């Protein structure tokens, strides 16, 4: 990647913004309203301008205090991201275009900073579906210096980092990593089960994170509900903000009684402070390697129908996008499919483990699908992002956006 770095071209920034808003005014007024309102809410400080060369074209990233906008010279990729509320809008030469990948670098990074060192969950065992096979053995942590080397190698279009942890206190550098993300214009997010939550951890998460997900383990739903409410209330009381607090819950055949019970609780308004329920499709990896992980379409129909009928805000992982979109269309809600993001691994997102190895996603780790890439051996993330191993997934013969090339899920 040729990186000319930060420029002072305020005229170019203003031109890009004007062209974009003009396009959306004409072709997608709702997107125009959403983006222009968030640009205004982000303050009057003009964006910093960064120029790059990658994937055979030039790229410009505008990085303002409250938002980012990335566009290439071909105008076939444009992406707006709000640092204030996580709003993301991606399009191309036309507002209706949906770019398949970003040749500059990922928009979001899944970054593992701890292995092992799990915290016991009262009322439940360590998650029996955990694909990472983590235990309460002595942890392996990523150092801050390694973290900084990795993050600094990415171009400025990287907007969010989803931190992979095993406990809120397992990696002593976690808060420092969160703070550094904010310093360089990246929004940190994290998932916790809440078992090791205390006042200091509430402050750390509510101060730095854009969103926090709370895992809802079987036998420990009350811990999940309590953690969601406490985080929501702490953010309001101490930071005057509505932290996005979501619930993560596994979709599997033997977890359905727990899942149904939890969704009924949400429908009955028993979970205060909850933003959305995020349904995670089980994969045959780790502790679930010998489980029957195929989810029938009828199960997705039951879940989607219940959420729609009870006005529950819900989401799902990319592995579930194809069946969910099929059900949404069947139920007469095809407009909701525009919010669905099928597998974006190696296209729009990346996974790096605690050792600094890239895999197409965390479920691909230690499989034969691709070979790991030592990202610390590169000065620029764009170099390996456009390398052969990444492209093997990005342009695989059986695109993951239709069916997973690693696991038989359908």
Overall description:
This protein is an alpha/beta fold and 410 residues long. The protein folds into 2 domains: 2-91, no CATH class; 108-394, TIM Barrel, CATH 3.20.20.70. 31% of the residues lie in helices and 21% in strands. The chain contains 11 helices and 18 strands. The strands form 3 sheets. Strands 15-14-13-12-11-10-7-16-17-18 form a 10-stranded mixed sheet. Strand 11, helix 5 (199-208) and strand 12 form a beta-alpha-beta unit. Helix 1 (10-27) packs antiparallel against helix 2 (29-41). The longest helix has 19 residues, at 221-239. It is globular, with a radius of gyration of 21 Å.
Which features would summarize this protein structure in a list?
single chain; 410 residues; alpha/beta; TIM Barrel; 2 domains; six-stranded antiparallel β-sheet; 18 strands; 21% strand
Per CATH, the architecture of the largest domain is: Alpha-Beta Barrel
The CATH topology label of the largest domain is TIM Barrel
Arithmetic mean of pLDDT: 92
How would you sum up the major sheet? Answer: 10 strands, mixed
Give me the oligomer status. single chain
So what's the CATH class of the largest domain? Alpha Beta
SS content category: alpha/beta
Shape: globular
Number of domains: 2
What distance separates the N and C termini?
38 Å
Order of helical and strand elements: EHHEEEEEEEEHEHEHEHEHEHEHEEEHH
Q: Count the strands?
A: 18
What's the CATH H-level homologous superfamily of the largest domain? Aldolase class I
Going across the biggest sheet, name each strand in turn.
Answer: 15-14-13-12-11-10-7-16-17-18
Q: State the helicity in percent bands.
A: 25-40%
Q: Beta-strand level of the residues, as a percent range?
A: 15-25%
Total DSSP helices: 11
Rg, Cα atoms, Å = 21 Å
Query: In terms of per-residue confidence, which ranges show pLDDT below 50 for 5 or more consecutive residues?
Result: none
